[in-house]
Amino acid sequence: MGAVQTLPATGHACAVNYPMSQPFSRKFLSGSPAAYRQWRENKLIGCSQTAAGRCIDIADPWSLTADEIRQLADSIKHHNFVLYRYDPHRYGSWEPVRALCAQMGLRTTVDNPLSDENGVSTLYDRTGETDFHDRRYIPYSSRPLNWHTDGYYSEGSGTIRSFVLHCERAASLGGENNLLDHEMAYLRLRDRHPALAEALTSPDIMTIPENLQGDVRIRKRFRGTVFSVDRDTGCLYMRYTQRRHNIHWRDDPRVSMALNVLDDLLNTGFPEKLTVRLSPGQGMLCNNILHCRAAYADRAGAGPDTGRLFYRIRFSERIRPPDRVLQGRP
Ligand SMILES: [Fe+2]
Fold it and tell me: Which of 36, 76, 93, 135 is deepest in the core (most CB within 10 A)?
């Protein structure tokens, strides 16, 4: 992990111009160099206009002001993620988080076996619980979590296009998150190694075996690629995990080399990579960007009432606040 980003206060006015995302044509992945260059230039200009990692102060997560929505939207438009914070003493638990997301256009949760009936996953170290049997789920432990995008094995209605990660309690030590806009990961990889970036767009290079728990099939086998264009939104979509077990990559030297280069870049070489240590009341809302988590320790012991506790809610929509707010209409 690199140095931890200090989250600066805000107070800045911004202007968001539609659209909320830059359309990413399928042709960009396999050619169309002039059109891709224009997209690239627009992306870099946009990123230079708004600093990534600026933390937006929210007065009341139940009722965002138009200016707060525009500030959140401005960061998401350019970086695909935004950091926010509100008073954790006035607004605790997951309900204000869900309310904030709803005001940013996120209403359809994507559940998993460990999320509750509201689509909320309460992440804390459960490895000491006698009735917690599935220790494969690293998010529910204090172990480090490698770079990934959420739901890289999901498709159809289970496709995760956005999620929020909100800190209810921080760890005594560690637990930092690294963040990287997946569009910037593609751009930088293609800048340095265009052939390798293209290799990661080939169909069916990744196979995730089915997930069986006893006789119950939790998830069917998935085959897909790393970089693709989402049919529903026209945006660049990334499926990726740094894990090397329980995943099969196509036996192709270009794919192997591309994965090695991407791993190296994620670990060392992306200037846009941001390390944050979220405090209580702070959260990160994103269009399913690349992220990872450092190991952590809880001096008072792990558990739902003492140790690090984060809420995670995943959605099938991309972030899309109401047009009327972005356009300044009443
Ligand atoms: Fe994740």
Answer: 76
Ligand 1 mean position, distance from CA 330 (Å): 36
Tally the domains of the chain: 1
Quote the ligand 1 centre to 173 CA distance (angstroms): 20
Task: Supply the range of the domain harboring residue 217.
Answer: 26-326
Please check whether residue 14 lies inside any domain of the structure. Answer: no
Which residues share a beta bridge with 164?
285, 313
- Assigned domain for 236 exists: yes
Task: With beta carbons less than 8 A apart as the criterion, state whether 76 and 82 touch.
Answer: yes
Please state the separation of Cα 141 from the chain's center in Å.
19
Beta strands in 102-221 (DSSP E): 120-123, 145-148, 162-169, 173-174, 177-180, 206-208, 211-213, 216-219
- What pTM was computed for the model? 0.91
pLDDT in tens, 130-150: 766 666 688 889 999 999 999
What CATH number is associated with residue 41? 3.60.130.10
